[in-house]
Amino acid sequence: MKREQFSSSLGFVLAAAGSAVGIGNLVAFPVMASKNGGAAFLIMYAIFVFFICLPVMLAEMSLGRHTRQSPLGAYTEIGQNPAWRAVGWMSVITPFMIGVFYLVITVWIFGYLAKSVMGQLEFLASPGSFGEFINSNELFVYMAVVIGLTFLILQGGVKRGIEKAARVLMPLLFLMLMALVIYVLTLDNAMLGVEFFLIPDFDKLTGKVLNGALAQAFFSLSLAMGILITYGSYIQKSNNIIQAGKMVAGLSLLVAAGSGLLILPAVFSFNPDVQLSELSESSISMIFTFLPKIFLALQANIGYLGASFVASFFFLLVFFAALTSLVSIIEVPVASLMDGKGMRRRTALLSLGSAMIVLAVICALSFGRVEIFTELTSYGLDAEGQPLVKSFFDLVYDIFYETILPLNGFLLCLFVIYRWRKHNFDAEISQGNDSFAGSFLQKYVNFSLGTFIPVILAVIFVNTVSTIFF
Ligand code: PHE
Questions:
Q1: According to the lineage, what is the superkingdom (predicted)?
Q2: In a designed cystine with 225, which of 95, 158, 246, 382 is the match (CB 3.0 to 4.6 A)?
Q3: Total domains in the fold of the chain
Q4: Is residue 365 a part of any domain in this protein?
Q5: Calpha distance 443→420 (Å, rounded)
Q6: Cα of 251 to ligand 1 centre, how many Å?
Q7: 73 in ligand 1 pocket by Cβ < 6 Å?
Q8: Residue 464 lies in a domain
């Protein structure tokens, strides 16, 4: 069967940007930036995106386009030994498992969208509502809708599913983000938030912060999950990979910065004296407990309908971003089953879908509803002598996102440069870009991927393993 392709370079760029732009850009980035030096963090993040992540991105795209296979096939074909095949497997299992935990968060977002549309801001802003919501039966209704939508898009295939969804959702997402930024900037005290975001504080950039920034940039660009290998395998030979890669990286960065200009001014207009410590612990608490309070407060200015509208608009924006990321991550195992086992798309989707539903339900039940999933492992005692436990959800996050992602990235760099080899990699990039051969960029990409990028990724890997597991 002939492999499907994106209809043009733009089709790929939108689909890949759809994958890259997600909860990470819209929520995790502003939270991290606000706590870690504002514009100083943004500058470092941008440097990481272009000087470390972009070469990895180009490597993945070229590997996919060259082999015309998903990661399992690509590693098997070029690697020619069981060890590389095992890395190929890891590049299929990782997106599958990250997909499970990302699916659960997407379901929460969809639930908050539904509740905002139904005008339940008061509930969303009340203490304890998030815990109540994620343990409600209602959640499974939202889960069914999100899974249904995701599979509907994937069933359409590359051009009529993934690309078409991205062509509709991504422009909408950019417009919605712009509209919200403009609106928020008109609120009282919004400028305090802009200042807070844009005044750099370089003292905050410790090694730990930089480590976190790079890990975030990596995740946010959907690297080391096999996604860009898979999407790369649908790129036409005549398309310019470098230009496309730069655009995806640039769009993702733009959305992250735009979201900083949305979230922080909103926080400051809600409470001009906000203390850093109040700026929420994590992105999850920011989006699900802090922001609903802001929406509720808006009610005093623009009424119940107005506030519900703004909240719905915001959650719809985040939902679009999450949905296109979810689609991309599930496409990896789907394409692997199609390539490796010759399955039809529908059969691949149905078998993966069922496994995914089981795991997602376990994840959803691991927030207190079912004890063994909630307390899957225990690792010592806290200051009060209570056992510290990790749930199924925490474990999936720790193992696959925190640990295997940098490891996969490290192996990918070695694979492309030392196994597939530079000249083959360069030849693939040069198709569609005559000026690459002999350019400074070529030298930089080859050198960095063969030297300091894998070293940095190995350091992140060792750091995480030592903090999480020991
Ligand atoms: N890029 C996504 C984000 O920023 C992360 C992601 C990508 C998650 C692909 C799942 C799949 O949220």
A1: Bacteria
A2: 95
A3: 1
A4: yes
A5: 17
A6: 14
A7: no
A8: no
CA of 155 to the centre of ligand 1 (A): 20
Residue 32 Cβ inside 6 Å of ligand 1? The answer reads no
Tokens of 35: 């706590």
Tell me what ipTM this predicted complex has. 0.95
Residue with tokens 């922001």: 291
Distance 248 CA to ligand 1 centre (A): 13
CA of 423 from ligand 1 middle (Å) equals 31
Residue 466 lies in a domain: no
Paired tokens of 162: 């993934």
- Ligand 1 in contact with 231 (CB < 6 A)? no
Nearest atom within ligand 1 for CA of residue 221: 1
Residue nearest atom 8 in ligand 1 by C-alpha distance: 325
Q: What is the pLDDT along the chain (470 residues), one digit of tens a residue?
A: 678 999 999 999 999 999 999 999 999 999 899 889 999 999 999 999 999 999 999 999 999 999 999 999 999 999 999 999 999 999 999 999 999 989 999 999 999 999 999 999 999 999 999 999 999 999 999 999 999 999 999 999 999 999 999 999 999 999 999 999 999 999 999 999 999 899 999 999 998 899 889 989 999 999 999 999 999 999 999 999 999 999 999 999 999 999 999 999 998 998 887 766 666 567 888 899 889 999 999 998 899 999 999 999 999 999 999 999 999 999 999 999 999 889 999 999 999 999 999 999 998 888 878 887 887 777 666 777 776 778 888 888 888 888 899 999 999 999 999 999 999 999 999 999 999 999 999 999 999 999 999 999 999 999 888 877 77
Asked if the structure places residue 103 within a domain, the reply is yes
State in Å: Cα 328 to ligand 1 middle. Answer: 9
